[in-house]
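Renewal narrative, Specific Aim 1. Our central claim is that a sequence can be written position by position from structural information alone. The example that follows is taken directly from our test logs and has not been curated for this report. It begins with the structure tokens describing the chain, in the order in which they were read.
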């Protein structure tokens, strides 16, 4: 017989939420569409973001050969940009645009650029994708014999008119996990989100969470569906800590108390996809298995957990 004293239970009928969360019987194509949507909302489609960066390079003819002269670094749309001018041994020059990002890991910025030299168009409609392995746009020469076309004498004013078509960065606070073999989920950052995709749609396949290590300073919540971009909806089905209401005799809530459970039982979630949010560090292990055991022995007298069984009920 399991220890049940001081255990907090809330019983949900999943059928109540079927209008919004009828996820159990969706085909694998729906999973793919959900994944594509998740990727899309993490991708900033920044059409319309534009900026102009310019720099005047003095004494062009006196620049050291085979070296870059660097303009001032400017920050635009969370990336750092500067114009560079390379002088070749034969006197030709190559203007270029350098981009660096504060992001670690994979990042990319797709751009369309126009280049002006001393106010005269030099290149237009250049398509280039900056990234961790391609930080410099410099595909062309201004030949020394053509300096007069761009009024290059002692100085050259180089301008890049940049339109950002798309930005994509690795966000350490956001992750996607496909339920397969057992793996650890470790959320190190505050206000992080992890999306769980269960692509094994056979009967009784679930997300099974164990070794959950809660943090009293971290609000941990599980949610139906997938994250929305800045839109708040009521889709939470598990949380720790939890705000317990106190009621007046007439049923009106007059206060709440915050209840943190140091012990969290293994959690079983029968959803094709769902996501968790955490305001601080938390860790757990997740795998794909179904445990049809309704006679449950808890690990502590004050504990919480969740079981979503095959009858479409949820118990926390």
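The sequence written for that structure reads:
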């Amino acid at each position: 017989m399991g220890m049940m004293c001081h255990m907090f239970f809330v019983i949900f009928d999943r059928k109540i939420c079927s209008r919004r969360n009828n996820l159990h019987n969706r085909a694998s194509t729906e999973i793919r569409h959900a994944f594509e949507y998740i990727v899309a909302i993490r991708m900033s489609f920044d059409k319309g973001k534009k900026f102009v960066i310019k720099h005047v390079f003095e004494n062009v003819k006196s620049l050291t050969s085979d070296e870059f002269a660097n303009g001032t670094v400017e920050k635009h749309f969370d990336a750092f940009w500067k114009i560079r001018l390379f002088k070749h041994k034969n006197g030709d020059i190559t203007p270029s645009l350098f981009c660096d990002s504060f992001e670690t890991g994979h990042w990319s910025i797709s751009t369309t650029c126009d280049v002006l030299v001393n106010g005269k168009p030099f290149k237009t409609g250049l398509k280039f994708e900056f990234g961790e392995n391609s930080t410099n746009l410099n595909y062309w020469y201004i030949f020394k014999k053509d300096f007069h076309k761009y009024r290059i004498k002692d100085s050259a004013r180089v301008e890049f008119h940049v339109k950002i078509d798309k930005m994509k960065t690795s966000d350490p606070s956001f992750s996607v996990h496909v339920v397969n073999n057992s793996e650890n989920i470790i959320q190190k950052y505050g206000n992080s989100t992890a999306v769980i995709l269960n692509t094994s749609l056979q009967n009784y396949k679930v997300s099974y969470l164990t070794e959950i290590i809660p943090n009293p300073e971290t609000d941990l919540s599980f949610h139906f569906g997938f994250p929305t971009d800045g839109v708040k909806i009521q889709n939470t089905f598990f949380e720790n800590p939890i705000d317990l209401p106190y009621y007046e005799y007439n049923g009106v809530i007059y206060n709440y108390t915050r209840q943190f459970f140091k012990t969290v039982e293994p959690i079983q979630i029968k959803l094709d996809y769902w996501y968790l949010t955490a305001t601080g560090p938390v860790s757990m292990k997740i795998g794909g298995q179904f445990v049809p055991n309704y006679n449950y022995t808890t690990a502590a007298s004050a504990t919480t957990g969740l079981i979503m069984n095959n009858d479409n009920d949820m118990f926390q």
